[in-house]
Specification:
Blueprint lengths: L2 H18 L8 E7 L3 H15 L2 E7 L1 H9 L6 E4 L1 H9 L9 E13 L10 H10 L3 E4 L3 H12 L3 H4 L3 E4 L2 H10 L4 E5 H4 L5 E6 L7 E8 L6 H12 L4 H6 L3 E2 L7 E4 L6 E3 L1 E2 L7 E3 L4 E6 L6 H6 L8 H9 L9 E8 L7 E11 L3 E6 L14 E8 L4 E5 L2 E4 L3 E6 L9 E2 L7 E2 L11 E5 L5 E9 L16 E10 L8 E3 L3 E8 L2 H20 L3 H11 E7 L5 E8 L6
Parallel strand pairs: 1-2, 1-3, 5-6, 5-7, 11-15, 14-16
Antiparallel strand pairs: 3-9, 4-7, 4-8, 4-9, 4-10, 12-16, 13-23, 15-27, 16-26, 17-25, 17-27, 18-19, 19-20, 20-21, 22-24, 22-26, 25-28, 28-29, 29-31, 30-31
Length: 576
């Protein structure tokens, strides 16, 4: 029996069997906004789901970025199926329920050619480079996953200048397919799942494994949905093993079949070093570039502040108590750090890319306040005050006081690598070239941090969980809490940095760190100029002028000894 026939039989028999076991009492109308990347899968699965459950499903397809803008404009929906960063942004903005976030499937990137056209070799990275440089034209969707992937890949392979004249950007994946089918573009870059459904084109192949990228489809239920149970029933159906033949046939794979390993780094005494970064600390975990890590971290300064703020003993997780009692070697800083993690292939001079895929709370509360001789106004507040703030995790909010509601935006205040061995042990308090205690509130789920590497393996550690924070962190204290984060680490060769940089779905971020705030602002500006010159190809004088017009300088924090200023520039002002 051929694979296609086996897939069709599986879809015909296994999926209805699965659905008849589900609780379909009470038909619902489910509204979905769905990325084109998983359109073919949904079009095949949804009719079967509707027949078995009696639910009615309406779907609006489009580019993830376009659909997210419609959500931001107030379009109602029950389920959003978008890229991970946009789903996570929706969670942070209170549009999507965080506990419903579900990874559905992913598709590798591929190249499309006109049906019947010659088939050049792309089986290796060298062959791919030759084919790209020899091509007459290459199309991709500007805001599509394929376009984002290809722009980054051209940078990584050093092909940006060589391909500049060949690029044919479009608005949608369908326009990419039409351009290739007409012969207006020789090659088209799209997820494999999209190429397979476009008329007049064929799959040339997927990208070589060492440079391959994936578009991951993630679903979440609207916080405003009245059909949550039915929506989650549909999401379980799409990720069930019985759906695999359809997903595979359409050029995708289930989340459970993804090849990049996920490692667990639990909050245990043996995984924690307290108050310092040091190249001599032995790694507690070894991972490969591209691997994913789920890491748990403990609230800064330990349990003393929690108890002082009024947290009851039975509300403190046992893992926190175990670390508090067992880790007695501490200082000079105040942060319990989980790690370090050895990343294979990382060498001094490389850059470690840390993608923040998701952030959760280990307990539904945080503590804030101030202590004597610290913060921005030590003379005005020469005493201690702690305040317990409880979270409404489902709503993504916290009530600071009656009538004062805060929006939660959790992030790790400290993400750092080991400093040069020549520096020995350094405090976890001030940030520096090792990155460390940036306290940058932009580094929420969906953001990416780039860290200069100083030792083999990088030796990455994380800690200082914040539920939210204002720019400046004026009391020295954010809304301090304990977090579980999901990150992906990648080693970037040939991308040398002196200071950390970052990006969010909407902004590029350059950072300046110095004990003098003016010097920190100058360094952030210089770093943004350097980024514009090296990454965007802008003349240095024009880069300086552009910073005055489009870069926003923000005070990251004033209180860590080494102060921080970060420059933010909108991605949307650039054509690529």
């Amino acid at each position: 029996m051929n694979i296609k026939r086996a897939s069709l039989l599986a879809a015909k028999f296994l999926i209805p069997i699965l659905l008849t076991q589900a609780d379909a009492a009470g038909a619902a109308e489910i509204r979905i906004v769905c990325s084109n990347g998983i359109k073919a899968v949904m079009e095949e699965l949804i009719p079967t789901f509707e027949r078995a459950t009696k639910h009615k499903v309406t779907i609006r397809y489009g580019l993830s970025a376009m659909l997210k803008r419609q959500i931001d404009a107030g379009e109602p929906f029950d389920i959003a199926i978008l890229t991970p960063t946009l789903i996570d942004e929706g969670i942070m903005r209170g549009q999507i329920a965080g506990d419903t976030r579900t990874v559905l499937a992913r598709s590798g990137m591929g190249l499309a050619i006109r049906a019947g056209a010659p088939r050049p070799d792309i089986r290796t990275t060298d062959a791919l480079k030759r084919t790209l440089l020899a091509s007459k034209s290459i199309a991709y969707a500007r805001e599509g996953a394929g376009g984002v992937f290809f722009v980054e890949l051209a940078e990584r392979l050093g092909l940006r200048d060589g391909l500049k004249a060949k690029i044919r950007p479009t608005t949608t994946g369908a326009e990419v397919g039409s351009a290739v089918a007409r012969g207006d573009a020789e090659l088209g870059v799209l997820p494999l799942s999209e190429i397979l459904i476009l008329p007049g084109v064929e799959v040339l192949g997927t990208f070589p494994a060492d440079v391959q990228g994936y578009v991951v489809m993630v679903a979440g239920v609207s916080l405003a949905s009245r059909q949550r149970a039915a929506a989650q029933e549909l999401m379980r159906f799409v990720t069930a093993p019985a759906a695999l033949p359809v997903i595979s046939k359409r050029g995708m794979e289930l989340a459970s079949s993804q090849t990049s390993p996920t490692h667990e780094l639990r909050l245990l005494p043996e995984n924690v070093h307290w108050g310092y970064y040091d190249a001599a600390v032995k790694p507690v975990l070894r991972v490969a570039s591209g691997d994913t890590i789920r890491v748990e971290t403990m609230v800064a300064r330990g349990l003393q502040r929690l108890r002082a703020a009024g947290v009851a003993e039975d509300e403190i997780p046992s893992a926190l108590k175990a670390v508090e009692n067992a880790v007695t070697e501490r200082g000079p800083g105040a942060h319990p750090l989980t790690g370090p993690v050895w990343v294979e292939g990382a060498e001094p001079g490389d850059v470690l890319e840390v993608k923040i895929l998701g952030v959760e709370f280990l307990h539904p509360y945080g503590v804030t306040g101030f202590i004597p001789n610290s913060g921005t106004l030590p003379d005005d507040f020469p005493y201690a005050r702690f305040k317990l703030v409880r979270f409404n995790v489902g709503a993504g909010t916290a009530e600071f006081a009656p009538g004062v509601t805060l929006r939660l935006a959790p992030f790790f205040g400290s993400i750092g690598v080991a400093p040069s061995p020549l520096l020995g042990r350094i405090s976890s308090g001030p940030p520096g070239s090792h990155t460390g205690n940036l306290d940058n509130k932009e580094l929420v789920a969906g953001s990416t941090l780039y860290l200069p590497v100083h030792v083999r393996g990088a030796l990455l550690s994380l800690g200082d969980g914040h539920a939210m924070q204002g720019d400046g962190e004026v009391t020295l204290t954010a809304l301090e809490t304990s977090l579980r984060g999901t990150i992906q680490v990648n080693v970037r060769k040939g991308k040398r940095l002196s200071w950390p940089r970052a990006e969010t779905p909407t902004h590029y971020i350059a950072m300046g760190l110095h004990t003098d705030l003016d010097q920190a602002a100058q360094l952030a500006t210089r770093e943004m100029i350097e980024f514009l010159v090296t990454e965007k190809g802008i003349d240095r004088d024009d880069a300086y002028i552009l910073c005055s017009l489009a870069a926003d300088l923000r005070v990251t924090q004033l209180v860590d000894g080494t102060k921080g200023v970060h420059a933010m520039m909108l991605k949307s002002i650039f054509a690529r």
